[in-house]
Amino acid sequence: MSAIGDRVSPEIHALNPYQPGKPIEELQRELGLPRVVKLASNEYPEGPFPEVLEALSREMAILNRYPDPTWFELGTAMASHQGLKREELLFGNGANEILELLLHVFTEPKDEVVYANPSFPIYRLLTQSHRAQGVPVPLDENHVHDLEAMAAAITSRTRLVFVCNPNNPTGTYVTAEAMAAFMAKVPADVVVVLDEAYFEFVTAKDFPSYHTLRKTYPNLVCLRSMSKAYSLAGLRVGYAMGSVEVIQLLQRVRQPFNVNRLAQVAAVAALAQRERTAERRVVTRRRVDHLGEKLVELGCKVVPSQTNFLLVFAPERSLGLFDRLLREGVIVRPMHHFGLDEGSFRVNVGTEDENEFFLNALSRVLAVSDTV
Questions:
Q1: Dihedral angle of Cα 110, 111, 117, 121, to the nearest 10 degrees
Q2: H/E element, 286
Q3: pLDDT tens digit string along 289-307?
Q4: Exposure of 189 by Cβ count < 10 A (0-12 exposed, 13-18 middle, 19+ buried)?
């Protein structure tokens, strides 16, 4: 190790960087395939609403100007959308930036951060990079957050608790009753982060309401994303809802101009399309159910999901399954990096044509497995 490397903490040296899903362009370069279907990153398969594209087109002429550092128009639109004050909102370059701000503000080295396992891997990576101590709590037998065990894991050193709801990568959720019981056990000086990146896809009637819980628990922060149902993954817009005190603390450490000009105008235009966003929820639910049924017919085990993706356990427990799928032009997300079986994978729904392309490819791959 060099002299420079000797100055870096063991926590940073031990980090394994986050590995995003393989890009379509990369697979096409590698294999020369005419068509590639990517169902690995939980993106919405259709592009932004036409009104969003129109707003972006108008904004292109003034990209020589910095974006609004206070996100005034976006904050006003979101406050109206959520029934909150602008002071109870904070926007970020994706929700990931806000996750990092939370670690920056509320933890010091050796403080504890509680989260489920498996869950969004960024929780672990950020905790480690901030030299805090991660406390992973296994999911229950139904792949759901074990909130009783998470509450029991909280100590005097705990500063943050992450609850990914619905959970990535399982698609499962905790109920309103379970969340309320959990919050009643959490000390008032521990910040609970309710990560609802997939909220717009939820159809469960007993899903928790942040707006109800916040009235009793000012230590609750809710994160949401405009990358999924709003088709803005390429622009990176996330936001936090929280008490004025918590938001002001996060404001102290966030970078100026953290949400770019195009992202802000696109988000404002997208928020105005409430009815069409609700339609996307219905369409996604139909596609998820159909895809799940077909996967079961192919011999797979599928975990019930409240998101736009499914956690799948294939009958073949081998990483070779995914290499063969890649050669068929299909990208899904293997889950062995999350500590699950080698034959497990996460697949988000695409268009109906993309879903059919994937199912046909998987059928051919599994048929080969049966004959080997």
A1: -80
A2: helix 274-297
A3: 999 999 999 999 999 999 9
A4: exposed
Residue keyed to tokens 């594209």: 53
If residue 90 lies in a helix (H) or strand (E), which one and from where to where?
strand 89-92
Amino acid found at 38: K
What is the three-class DSSP state of 302? Answer: strand
CA separation for the pair 98, 290 (Å, rounded): 35
Cα(118)–Cα(129) distance, rounded to whole angstroms? 19
Residue whose token pair is 């969003």: 52
- Contact predicate 176/206, CB 8 Å: yes
Q: What residue has token string 């109870």?
A: 88
Alpha carbons within 13 A on the beta-carbon side of 358: 25
Question: Amino acid letter at 154?
Answer: I
Pick the closest to residue 346 from 320, 316, 312, 321 (CA basis). 312
**Residue at token pair 């990176």:** 236
Is residue 68 classed as helix, strand or coil in its secondary structure? coil
pTM: 0.93
